[in-house]
């Protein structure tokens, strides 16, 4: 079974699911009030340079200033190999970068406070961090990515056929205009020269319009907004493996048809309108997969399970044997659980869009050949992932460390919000802990001569003070000659309490 794209559209939300073999492998959500900024181009103004961090804050008109690293001024295409040559070259900011190696230059030598130039959002604001921007503009089409002011031709590593890679690179080098770089996208595989020429002409026209507009727009202004999620799905997800795209909105279906007729006519016969009474995602069983994607624990068929814990800095995934006891030796049981977990972990990383640092704690194995087998299985499972990732060999402790490019918030952070009760900690102080805190507090007050102490606490804590910890209260009363009163307030947070003295 080939791949399918399902698009569910409601008034304020668009959801896109990419299916492979009938299973959801990638899921995207975009809401009108907080649509993604990735790909948008602004005329920014440098408001502060941080020499100690070799970075700068750039005002692009958002609530928080965007963050610009010095590396994002030099290049943003490491995946396709360095493209800067040694001769002097005019950079995107309008100045000439000298022959001296760019890695030796500081950010203060490249930009100054108050300077205005074009920047493109490369990462959405995540958590408490503002957007990340780059001064190297890239304009993605279906077959190509245009890089103004860069002399380079790169090709997607996902095109594996060497003969096809050579054909495409020769074709693009022949038609590439001077002063521009091009990246050949995965969708270019088996495409014709006419297809690629049309894509290039469209991107060149788009850049020409941007270049004209940048002089008229004041700083903090938006010059270009990337396509919405529906159109991005057509442009970025409609690979040769995709058999059909199904959408449940007649209005959006008409928009897609017009878009595809204009730019990608070969895709027309793959677009379908869903008109059944049963909701689209229910009909394909998508809702169940989504609910699993935000859960902390994921069960394996054998009875083992994995636990996914996401923090702001990293994600930790733990593998456990659970109910699986195996039929042979311990090492064999552990290997089978780990190998089963490999497939599920690779799937969950892609589905949940986990990014940044990821540490996977597999169950430790004694035999080195088993660890090698596990590592090979995991790297193979991650090959299907479209996001750039780097995987380090399994350690003696059974850990695999990896990084995965993070552009947008993970699915869990998109669909969920911080728990208002525990404030994201995942736990609250126990009633026992709170009782002993209160006892220590009333002792301090009693020693300072208070005659009457009033405790107001959550009913669970108040009940424990009045029952199990009553002897502690009575000890304070008899030792210091003070009267202690306990009041329950069911409107209070369990961790909060008030101790007043009269």
Main attributes of the structure:
single chain, 502 residues, alpha+beta, Nucleotidyltransferase, domain 5, 6-stranded antiparallel sheet, 6-stranded mixed sheet, 31% helix, 27% strand, Ribonuclease G, RNA binding, metal-binding, nuclease, NA-bd_OB-fold
Report a brief summary of the structure:
By secondary structure, the chain is of the alpha+beta class. Helices cover 31% and strands 27% of the residues. It has 4 domains: 91 residues, Nucleotidyltransferase, domain 5 (2-Layer Sandwich), CATH 3.30.420.60; 184 residues, OB fold (Dihydrolipoamide Acetyltransferase, E2P) (Beta Barrel), CATH 2.40.50; 120 residues, no CATH class; 71 residues, Hypothetical Protein Ychn, Chain: A, CATH 3.40.1260.
Helices and strands in order:
Elements: E1 3-9, E2 13-20, E3 23-31, E4 41-50, E5 55-59, E6 66-69, H1 70-74, E7 89-90, E8 96-97, H2 107-110, E9 116-123, E10 132-134, E11 139-140, E12 144-148, E13 153-155, H3 162-175, E14 180-184, H4 193-213, E15 221-224, H5 229-237, E16 242-247, H6 250-263, E17 271-273, H7 280-283, H8 286-293, E18 297-299, E19 305-310, E20 314-320, H9 330-352, E21 356-361, H10 368-381, E22 389-391, E23 399-404, H11 411-415, H12 431-447, E24 452-457, H13 459-466, H14 470-480, E25 483-488, E26 497-501
Parallel strand pairs: 1-16, 13-14, 16-17, 20-21, 24-25
Antiparallel strand pairs: 1-2, 2-3, 4-5, 4-9, 4-15, 5-6, 7-8, 9-10, 11-12, 12-14, 18-19, 19-20, 21-23, 22-23, 24-26
Q: What fraction of the residues are assigned to beta strands by DSSP?
A: 25-35%
CATH superfamily of the largest domain: Nucleic acid-binding proteins
Number of structural domains? 4
**Structural class by secondary-structure content:** alpha+beta
Helix content: 25-40%
Number of helices: 14
**CATH architect. name of the largest domain:** Beta Barrel
Write down how many β-strands occur, each being a DSSP E stretch of 2 or more residues: 26
CATH topology of the largest domain: OB fold (Dihydrolipoamide Acetyltransferase, E2P)
Q: Low-confidence spans: pLDDT under 50, at least 5 residues?
A: 75-100
The largest sheet, given as strand count, sense and whether it forms a barrel, is: 6 strands, antiparallel
CATH structural class of the largest domain: Mainly Beta
Distance between the termini: 76 Å
Mean pLDDT: 86
Shape: globular
Oligomeric state of shown chains: single chain
State Rg: 29 Å
């Amino acid at each position: 079974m080939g791949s399918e794209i399902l698009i569910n559209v409601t008034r304020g939300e668009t959801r896109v699911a990419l299916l492979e073999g009938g299973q959801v492998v990638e899921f995207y959500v975009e809401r009108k009030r907080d649509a993604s900024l990735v790909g948008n181009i602004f005329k920014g103004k440098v408001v502060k340079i941080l020499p100690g961090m070799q970075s700068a804050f750039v005002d692009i008109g958002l609530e928080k200033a965007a963050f610009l690293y010095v590396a994002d001024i030099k290049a943003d295409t490491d995946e396709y190999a360095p493209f800067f040559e040694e001769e002097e070259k005019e950079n995107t900011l309008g100045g000439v970068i000298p022959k001296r190696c760019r890695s030796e230059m500081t950010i203060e030598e490249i930009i100054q406070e108050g300077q205005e130039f074009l920047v493109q959002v490369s990462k959405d604001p995540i958590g408490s961090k503002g957007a990340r921007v780059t001064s190297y503009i890239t304009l993605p089409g279906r077959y190509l990515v245009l890089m103004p002011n860069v002399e380079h031709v790169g090709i997607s590593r996902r095109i594996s056929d060497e003969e096809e890679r050579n054909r495409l690179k020769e074709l693009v080098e022949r038609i590439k205009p001077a002063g521009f770089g091009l990246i050949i996208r995965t969708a270019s595989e088996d495409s014709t020269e006419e297809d690629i020429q049309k894509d290039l002409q469209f991107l060149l026209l788009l850049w020409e319009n941007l270049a004209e507009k940048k002089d008229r727009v004041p700083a903090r202004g938006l010059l270009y907004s990337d396509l919405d999620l529906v159109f991005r799905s057509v442009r970025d997800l409609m690979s040769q493996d995709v058999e059909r795209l199904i959408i449940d909105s007649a209005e959006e279906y008409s928009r897609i048809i017009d878009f595809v007729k204009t730019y990608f006519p070969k895709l027309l016969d793959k677009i379908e309108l869903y008109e059944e009474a049963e909701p689209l995602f229910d009909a394909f069983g998508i809702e169940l997969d989504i609910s699993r994607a935000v859960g902390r624990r994921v069960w394996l068929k054998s009875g083992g399970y994995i636990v996914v814990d996401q923090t702001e800095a990293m994600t930790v995934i733990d593998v456990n044997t659970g109910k699986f006891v195996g039929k042979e030796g311990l090492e064999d049981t552990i290997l089978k659980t780990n190998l089963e977990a490999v497939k599920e972990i690779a799937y969950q990383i892609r589905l949940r869009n986990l990014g940044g640092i990821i540490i996977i704690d597999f169950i430790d194995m004694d035999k080195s050949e088993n660890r090698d087998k596990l590592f090979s299985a995991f790297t193979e499972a991650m090959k299907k992932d479209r996001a750039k990732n780097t995987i380090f060999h399994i350690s003696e402790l059974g850990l695999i460390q990896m990084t995965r490019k993070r552009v947008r918030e993970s699915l869990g952070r998109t669909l969920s919000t911080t728990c208002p009760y525990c404030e994201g900690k995942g736990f609250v102080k126990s009633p026992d802990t709170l009782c002993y805190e209160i006892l220590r507090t009333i002792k301090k007050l009693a020693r300072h001569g208070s005659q009457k102490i009033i405790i107001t606490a959550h009913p669970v804590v108040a009940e424990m003070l009045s029952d199990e910890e009553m002897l502690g209260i009575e000890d304070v009363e008899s030792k210091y000659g003070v009267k202690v009163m306990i009041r329950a307030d069911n409107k209070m947070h369990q961790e909060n309490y008030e101790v007043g003295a009269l």
